[in-house]
Amino acid sequence: MYEYENLRRITYGETDAQFIPVCPKCGRFVKADESMMFNMENDFDRKCTNATCKKCGRVQMPFEGFY
Fold first, then answer.
1. Complete DSSP assignment for the chain
2. Which range of residues forms the domain containing residue 22?
3. Each residue's pLDDT tens digit, 8-61
4. Based on the structure, what is the number of domains in the chain?
């Protein structure tokens, strides 16, 4: 089964970039940033952190796709 099937999603931007709000290191839920920067092609920096984990600090949430 899909690991994150019944979890909420975080969506950013006009292109609806969708993320799963869990820490990729420890698996805890994270506090997502209010907004995210997009370039002119409506793409985001895939190396940039976009959430805070209480245990691991600044992390990047797993990207699920554009919806």
1. --TTTTS--EEETTTTEEE--B-TTT--B-EE-S---B-TTS-B-TTS--EEETTTEEE-PPEEEE-
2. 1-67
3. 999 987 778 899 999 999 999 999 999 888 877 777 878 889 999 999 999 999
4. 1
